[in-house]
Amino acid sequence: MKNKGVIILGSSRSNGNTHKVVTFFKEKTGFDLIDLNSKNIGEFDYNFENRNDDFIPLIKQIVDKYEVLIFATPVYWYAMSGIMKTFFDRISDCLKIEKETGRKLRGKSMGMISCGADLELKDGFSMPFKESANYLGMNYLGDVHSWIEEEEIPKPVQSQLIHFIENNIKTVDLI
Ligand SMILES: Cc1cc2nc3c(=O)[nH]c(=O)nc-3n(C[C@H](O)[C@H](O)[C@H](O)COP(=O)(O)O)c2cc1C
After folding, report:
1. CA distance readout (Å), 163 to 39, 158, 167
2. Less Cβ around it within 10 Å: N or C end of the chain?
3. How many angstroms separate the alpha carbon of residue 111 from the centre of ligand 1?
4. What are the CA-CA distances from residue 108 to residues 1, 63, 90, 105, 169 (Å)?
5. What pLDDT, on a 0 to 100 scale, did the predictor assign at position 130?
6. What is the radius of gyration, based on Cα positions, of the chain?
7. Which numbered atom of ligand 1 lies nearest the CA of 148?
8. How many CA atoms lie within 13 A of 56 on its CB side?
9. How far apart are CA 77 and CA 81, in angstroms?
10. Would the pTM of this model clear 0.90, i.e. be above it?
11. Looking at ligand 1, which atom is closest to the CA of residue 121?
12. Cα of 126 to ligand 1 centre, how many Å?
């Protein structure tokens, strides 16, 4: 598989459980990894006061370099992390002041990996990802829920990640 995919990690700790899961995923796919926790990305602002922070250069790099975007988020209070939500909110910059960049998202693919303490996700967790993909003209590849047991990725989670890579990601034409 050619390296045209990127994992966008949205955990509040760079080396926590979600990072453990994405490291496995990265090894299996060769995808690059972007850690949002290491970036300075402010909240969405209607006056675009945060336009000079890390968001716009980062999204430009993502749209120019990658065809597949995998959002990896811990489950915090039954939802995506705040860092991840802020990243999605800032995509609104691309609908107003960075329209050309926003248009480049069309036709790309998006998937999602969640990492929680519970073995199951509550209904609706994946909806914002699916609907955002739909709104942005992106293809939704599906999602995998993960968790960590005794510092390790349990075998069933490993199997689901491999299944997701084989069946949902390798079907994308990565040139
Ligand atoms: C603020 C906060 C809220 C959490 N809420 C949930 C939750 O609603 N459901 C759940 O299964 N786990 C919840 N957890 C547990 C984390 O999802 C779990 O420990 C995850 O592996 C953390 O990943 P991280 O190390 O990348 O942050 C929460 C943890 C934190 C810190």
Report:
1. 31, 9, 6
2. C
3. 20
4. 16, 9, 18, 6, 12
5. 98
6. 15
7. 21
8. 15
9. 8
10. yes
11. 11
12. 16
Predicted confidence at residue 41, as pLDDT, reads 98
Instruction: Using DSSP bridges, classify how beta strands 5-9 and 68-74 pair: parallel, antiparallel or unpaired.
Output: parallel
CATH number of 5-169: 3.40.50.360
Ligand 1 atom at shortest distance from the alpha carbon of 17:
25
Summarize pLDDT for 13-54 with one digit per residue, the tens: 999 999 999 999 999 999 999 999 999 999 999 999 999 999
Q: How confident is the model at residue 14, as a pLDDT?
A: 98
pLDDT digits (tens, 9 = 90+) for 87-115: 999 999 999 999 999 999 999 999 999 99
Indicate the domain borders of the chain: 5-169
pLDDT reading at 175 higher than 50: no
Please state, as a whole number, how many other Cβ atoms lie within 10 Å of the Cβ of residue 30: 12
Ligand 1 pocket test target in 19, 35, 75 with most atoms within 8 Å of CB: 75
Query: What type of residue sits at position 169?
Result: I
Sheet holding 109-115, edge to edge: 32-35, 5-9, 68-74, 109-115, 139-146
Kindly list the protein residues whose Cβ atom lies closer than 6 A to any atom of ligand 1. Answer: 11-13, 16-18, 74-78, 115-118, 148
| pLDDT of res. 170 | 85
